[in-house]
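User: Second chain of the day. Same drill as before.
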Amino acid sequence: MSQELSEKKMTGLVVVVTGSSRGLGRAMALGFGRLGAAVVFNGRSPRRLVAAVQAARKNGVRGLGVCADVATAFGARRLIDRAFQVFGRVDVLVNNAGVSGPPPAPFWKIRPDAWADTLAANLTGPLLCSSAYVKKLSQAGLAGRIINISSTAGSRGYPGLAPYCASKFGLRGLTECQSLDLEGTGVTVVGLELAGHRTPMTRRRLAPEDFAGLPPPEEALDLLVYAATGPPELLQGRTLSELRFRVDREAEIRLNGPLAAVPPWLPHLPRHLAEPPPQPDSLHLDLLENPQGPPGLACEAVRKLEAPALARYPDPRLASLRGALAKRLGLPPECFTFGNGSTELVERVLRTFARPGDEVVAADPTWPVFERFCRVHGVGLARVPYTIDRTQGAARLNLEDILEAVNSRTRLIYLVSPSNPLGAVLGADEFREFLDRLRPGLPVVVDEAYLEYAERPDILNTQRLVLRMERPLIGLRTFSKFYGLAGMRIGYAYAAPDTLRLIARLHLPFACAAAAEVAALAALQDQDHARRTRDAVRRGREMVRRGLQKLGLTSLDSEASFLLAEMPAEPDLVYDTLMEHGLYLPEVFWQGFMQLPLGDDAAQERYLRVLGQLRRRLHA
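Assistant: Same format as last time:
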């Protein structure tokens, strides 16, 4: 919101800000005043209150100070009565006064009086001030607005902060109840979940370096002005997040939830879709589709589909494909569920086991779409970084680090083997040991989208474990990569029947088309396509490694349809140069390495030639 528009909206309003003698409350009160509002300052310390009012008047702000403890009924009434007495009305009440509570400690060590004091300041105070305010408005026949100031502790718990978190959770509930009770009265109530700012309260809680990294309180003013002046129908009963408001203002206003902080789907289109290719023979390798194309048997089977099969809904059980996979993987048919590619299944598993405010543990980097799903559903993502094992020449994930990242909030572990984007794999023995040490009952999902490419004999194969584990263990696979059916959008999950039953609850009816099932069945039988695909990737891996060695560039081992190569220059220069030559590669760079697709001899020759030209040009 522009300064000019903010001043236009705030000029002439009367705003009461509780707890405004210092810190965040003082900053917001001064901010309202500079935009043209008359401000009523409040606090319990006469000295601080006088200083705040004097600072306001020096800045040309019309201010009034009312010393009162608003956590008491007397103090709340005194503040509101005095404001009405001086100004004749109050347009906005900001319930900001609060305390951080006692020093962090486990809840069983919290003294009852410290608990009561925290809830009195943070929850009872807003109730008492709002009650006094609404009564005054009703007597005068006026409309008004209540803004309840909360924090991220109003939507998730923090260890050692039970009194503070409970009070902020309660404030969110109070806001919703107030909105229902105030319907039809002309009074709007909204909550604001503010981020951390540089204030005396946060200074006491944080290390100096963490405190220095926080934004100043003035950063919240834009959201505060919107809450004070925005359309009531978009505010009533809601709690808006400052962090999401910064990411996408309009989305937070309209959606008011985790989805507001998520960029639109495909925010960065593959370059060949976002802009015209520079030449007619451009190669589009950025989505890692199988360069061998779909299996011939699958194409033939789809061509033979007759009109009645297209006119009818598909078998929701996918019984034929279920039976074929059961035979191939050696699992009972009831161990499978299907989805619109493994993408839909990943989201389904996440929604099954994790709720907003929970956490999942995953490797870093992980499949980018999984990160997106976590943001969509408000699930925290704890990241465990890969490292480079120089002796093995490959990326490596230490499962010991995964174990250490698990805490009481963890609801799911998401692993990818072979990894996208690194091609690293998990060993079968280390994974079994990991499961034995993991907290009982914690679900683990292993995304095996690239497993058919892997050749190492000791690699984890989840299908061999799902019936042996007492914990929920889920494997995910797709027909999009190895089988060349990305356009058909069909994938599957497998798990023990009891676990499968949980994730099957969110199955979308008829999510997989009849043609997709027919194509997948035929693809499983096309051994010639499977052989050609494996041979092409194996040959490509050796060819690209040798080519990189000639250029003086290193590579990391991979068990997927790509490998990681040392980047010869800055990422933007590399990808722009490749694009100028009609080559669109995945824009993945990790610790100085880039992702090179395998399986197409001509494509590999082209990108190696361009990388060589770039390297020679830079070293000329």
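The radius of gyration is 30 Å.

User: Great, on to the next one.
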